[in-house]
Design brief:
- Helix 1 runs parallel beside helix 3 and helix 2 packs parallel to helix 6.
- It is built from 6 helices and 5 strands.
- The mean pLDDT is 84.
- The protein has a single domain, classed as Rossmann fold (3-Layer(aba) Sandwich).
- With 147 residues, it is an alpha/beta fold.
- The strands form 2 sheets. It has a 3-stranded parallel beta sheet with strand order 3-4-5, with helices on both faces. It has a two-stranded parallel sheet with strand order 1-2.
Amino acid sequence: LHADYRRRLAELVPHRPEVTAALTDMKDSGWALGAITSGEPATQIRKLHTAQLDHLVDTVITTGASDLCEPRGDLMRKAVEDLDAVPDTEVWMVSDRATDVVGAHTAGLGAIWISRGRTLAPDDPQPESVCETVVEAARWLAASRPM
């Protein structure tokens, strides 16, 4: 039953053409993209495939594959390593303030929080930017990237 749930969950991830277009523009501009997520690797890869984003992602790091932990920054550091990136010049899009913003900052990365209509409390970890959507975050990154 649990296996069916995981399979079905991955099948329900929507394809959002505007997100695919925004991330394609980032790739075309030279960005390396990584997906950092909790869960089992096979499920997360199926989600990326269903959303039609798998061809845009250079690495997928999941908590289900190891003992890496988001708040400690382990997942972010592993992605930086896999992407051959420089932490102090990279900014990461995140959506969960409690783990992802803390993890990004612990790893020496900047953080963009995808709010989806939510607001941060004053005592929440504060990202470098708050954007409503992934598309808005991609635009923010493109505008703020040093050339």
